Each structure stands twice: as structure tokens, then as C-alpha cells.
Amino acid sequence: MCLAHGLRRSGIAVTVYERHRTRTDGLLGYRIGIGPIGSRALRDCLPPELFDTFVVTCARTPRYFNVLTEKLRDTASFTLHADAAATDTDQSVSRMTLRQVLLTGMDDVVRFDKTFTHYEQHDDGRVTAYFADGTRDTADLLVGADGTHSAVRRQYLPHARVHPAGTINIATKTPLTGRVRALLPEHVLKGISLIFGSGGVMGVLHVMEFKWDRNGAVKAGVDPRDADLLARWSGLRHDDTRDYVALVVWTAGHRFPADIMQRRGEDLVKVALGLTPNWHPHLRELLASSDRGSAMPVKVSTSEPVAPWKSSTVTLLGDAIHTMTPGRGIGANTALRDAALLRRQLVAAAAGEKSLLEAVADYEAKMIPYGFARVADSLRNSGTDGDDPLYRPVVGRLALLAARGYFTVTSRVPPLRRKFVEGIYAYRGAEE
């Protein structure tokens, strides 16, 4: 959708085919971290007012990065940068809210309930996409932005492989009530917290607070300019996102029941509670009181690097080519970076500065190296690799002590603390 906005703003005809039936299907409201790279891409592609709407619909910016034990004790807490320009800091956004922002004003571009089946390239270079309902469409370029299990990639690059990283997440969402607020310390309420649990069970907790209340009305005290943007934005009518606590529990895949990916609701929450019997009662209460309808299992996957291929009138974007684990929080940002880069190349082709094939080749020449570099980064020292020592029976205790020790020392030595925080922003804002 980011790419589609950018192309349409540049006068290039674009159609998006979406497999979900409506604009509210398919996403359950979990958090995405949008860093400077992603924000710059959105700013470059979206109409100015819609980019401002994106900023206004983000959750409150985290003030702290915390490292906790499963007993809710502090291992470390780092103060993050104060609010800065949207393109210079990290934004936290609900998946459903971001979806509604990106669908705004695009009724004439998006075709819902269209499941892609295959494509056919023609002698004149054009390409036809076919859909399960018997319809088809022919254009100059087909962009596969259809995610980790991309059907476009399967046909175009059948040798490109995605495999399990070896960990599984159970994601839960708990409405942020007064009782839930009372369960968490202030710095946890206002931060994002990584939980290093004993026994190789990890977690991440993030409180998401928005500028509208549980009835969808703008909260008191919101800046009048922000309130005006929200009042004019039609997307809030389609968004059921309200203030919540996201708590994700994960560990090595072999610790889960064989049918974990088919489990939902109460059954899934019971599995999460079964993995965390020694966690603090407040954390367990968060799990126990979570919204059963939104609990979901996620099998973490990662792409294998692919050698450059001969460019054509088919290309790939985001998870369709470089699926990465959530270990460094850069998957969405890298996809948005792809979108902005591809838009620039296609605009140059439309202006006659290069051919379409040259534009696609120039896009892929940059995207492939940085995309797979980020794939490797997402596995490194992130706890998302099932072979990580943290998940081994004996060595895991030593690995846990080492990890906690690293964060304890880093947070208490001022030069190391500053270097750690600056490193977060430098990495998430770096183009190379």
C-alpha cells in the first residue's frame, strides 16, 4: 500500500489485489515498530496529510527500554530519546490502524477478495496475473508483496526458501483497564520491556495507548491539531484498536504441542500459562485476562539468502523476498524501505530516464544486499533462533546469566548506557 500511494502520487497507474474480503479482515491489532527508515519511506510515498494522520494514530512513544526477569524484577532500564520529529524516532503503531491509514483514499485502487494463483509473462514484456475467482489483469509490472508464503515468489524463484527459525510465539492482547494499569510499574507502563525468563521462556511486553478512547472518541487533552486530523480521518470508523497491553511469550518450538499452530482462544492462552508457571502473578494475570479472540500463535520464519537473478517484469517486495524474524524489529521497516526505493526507480522509468527493466534491476541490486543483511541481523543475538544457547537445558542457565549480566553492567555504566541507546537509534535509522 505504501508503494501504491507513492506510484499514484507520481501519476503511475497502479492496482492492488488483496486476498482479504474487506478492509477490516485478517489483522488483529498487534504492534509494529516503525523506525526512522520506515517513517521516511511513508513520508516519501504518502500524501502529506495522510502521513500526518499516520503520526497522529501511532501509540504513545516508548520512554524506556526495560529488561526484566520473569519475576518482574528490573535487570536494566534505559531511558529512550524524548519525542523528536516523526522521521527521527521510533513509532509504535497497531497493525490494524496502520492498515486503515494506508487504505485511506484508495477505494479506486484496491480490489478485495482476490486470491492470486499464478502469472504469465508475454513476449511483449507485459505480465498477466490470474486470481482464484477467474479474473485476471495485465500490466507492465507485477510486484509480489504477498508475504512470507508468497505465491508470486513460489513461481518466480522456486529455489528461494523460507524455513522455521526454531521458535514459536504466542501473542496476546489485554485491554488496558484501571486494573491492568495497577499490575505494572510506571516504567513498564511507559516503555517496551524484554523479559528474560528462566527455563528458556522469553517475553516482550508493550503498553499501547492511543489518542482516542474505548468509544473511538478523541481523548481530552489531545493537541487540537491532532484532534482535528482524527476527526477528519475516515479510517477510525473501520478500526477497532483501543488501548491495550501486548504480551508475547516465546521459546523453542519443541516446547509447544505439535498442533500449536491450529490452536486458538482459551486453548492457546492455557499453553502460554503452562509455559510460565513461575512468572510473576501480575504477568500471569495479564495472560489470563487477555482477549481470547485475538490470541494467536506465530511460527517464526527466516529466509535463506538468494543469489541475484535476471531482472524481469516481475519483482518482489518485503517478506515476499526477505522474511526475517522479529528479533531486531526491522521487518516492516525494511519492507517500507523497499517500497520507497522501488517507487523512485519506477518514477525514473516513467520519466524516460531509464527503461522499466533497468529500473527493476537497479531496485533489486540495492534491495537484495540490504534485505538479506537485515535477515542475518534479525537472527543474531536476538533469541529468535531456536538453536540459541538460551533454550538448552544446562547451557541455557549460563546463557541467561550472561545476558542478564550484560544488560545490568551496560545500564549502570554511563558511557556504556549512552552507547547502547545511541546504537539502537543508529541501527534503526541507518540506510546501510
Low-confidence stretches: none
- Please give the share of residues in helix: 25-40%
Gyration radius, to the nearest Å?
Answer: 22 Å
Q: What is the number of beta strands?
A: 16
Mean pLDDT: 92
Defining key terms:
alpha+beta; 432 residues; three-stranded antiparallel β-sheet; single chain; 15 helices
Description:
With 432 residues, the chain is α+β, with helices and mostly antiparallel strands. The chain contains 15 helices and 16 strands. A seven-stranded mixed beta sheet has the order 4-3-12-13-14-11-15, sandwiched between helices. The chain has a three-stranded antiparallel beta sheet with strand order 7-8-9. The chain is globular, with a radius of gyration of 22 Å. The model has no long low-confidence stretch (mean pLDDT 92).
Topology:
Blueprint: H1 2-9, E1 16-17, E2 31-34, H2 36-45, H3 48-57, E3 64-69, E4 74-79, E5 91-94, H4 95-103, E6 110-111, E7 116-121, E8 127-131, E9 136-139, E10 142-144, H5 151-156, E11 162-175, H6 178-182, H7 186-189, E12 191-196, E13 202-208, H8 224-232, E14 244-252, H9 265-275, H10 281-288, E15 296-303, E16 314-316, H11 319-322, H12 331-350, H13 356-379, H14 395-412, H15 414-429
Parallel strand pairs: 1-6, 3-12, 10-16
Antiparallel strand pairs: 2-5, 3-4, 7-8, 8-9, 11-14, 11-15, 12-13, 13-14
Helix pairs in contact: 1-2, 1-12, 2-12, 3-4, 12-13, 14-15
In short:
With 432 residues, the chain is of the alpha+beta class. It has 15 helices and 16 strands. A hairpin with a 5-residue loop joins strand 12 and strand 13.
